């Protein structure tokens, strides 16, 4: 195998596990951010998942001089006018845990009948000079009435997926990857993977 490094530009361990498993068998050497010591924090103040994913992938690629893959994702709740959306990670303030965010969301949804929600994931792959490829995936579901399940991470215990009659946290990793927003974005990336590798090689050969 040719040594084709790709840095996963995320500090979220749940995402790292899922992305690694979704990319297994592909001709790239996945490297985690923890291998590189301290990297300056990246402001995620974009108005869209795409802006934030691009910013994370691009700045990481620029700082490390290696191609990087970033994921920006979140939960969009219809009855809350799309909240927490791009603010999903910061929904319950700095220092809050996944559990705090889930409890805040369940409280905000108390007595609300319309439980429709979707998870969105945008994956960006960028090279140090700037250009990026973008892949997008969505999964529609509902906000559960209470937390259920122990698997996964983040909002998984409160995201109910009607076709399987389970929350994401009640699914095995394989079940979640088959239907999730991230699984769907990564499926597109995998379908195009040969083209992505050619694109990466061309872009990297243009780098100074
Ligand atoms: P990085 O920016 O370092 O990747 P992050 O956790 O800050 O990590 P985001 O800015 O994309 O990631 O915020 C996404 C939020 O949505 C965060 O609270 C996640 O836990 C949650 N989230 C994303 N994907 C999820 C999934 O598949 N299941 C449950 N929650 C998810």
Q: Mind explaining what this structure looks like?
A:
- The chain has 208 residues and is of the alpha/beta class.
- The protein has one domain: Maf protein (Alpha-Beta Complex), CATH 3.90.950.
- 33% of the residues lie in helices and 22% in strands.
- The protein has helices at residues 13-22, 49-64, 98-108, 173-179, 181-191, 193-206, and strands at residues 5-8, 29-32, 68-77, 116-126, 132-143, 159-161, 166-167.
- A seven-stranded mixed β-sheet has the order 2-1-3-4-5-6-7.
- Strand 6 and strand 7 form a beta hairpin.
- Helix 4 (173-179) crosses helix 5 (181-191).
- The radius of gyration is 17 Å and the shape is globular.
- Bound molecules: inosine 5'-triphosphate (ITT).
Keywords summarizing the entry:
single chain, 208 residues, Maf protein, seven-stranded mixed sheet, 7 strands, alpha/beta, binds inosine 5'-triphosphate
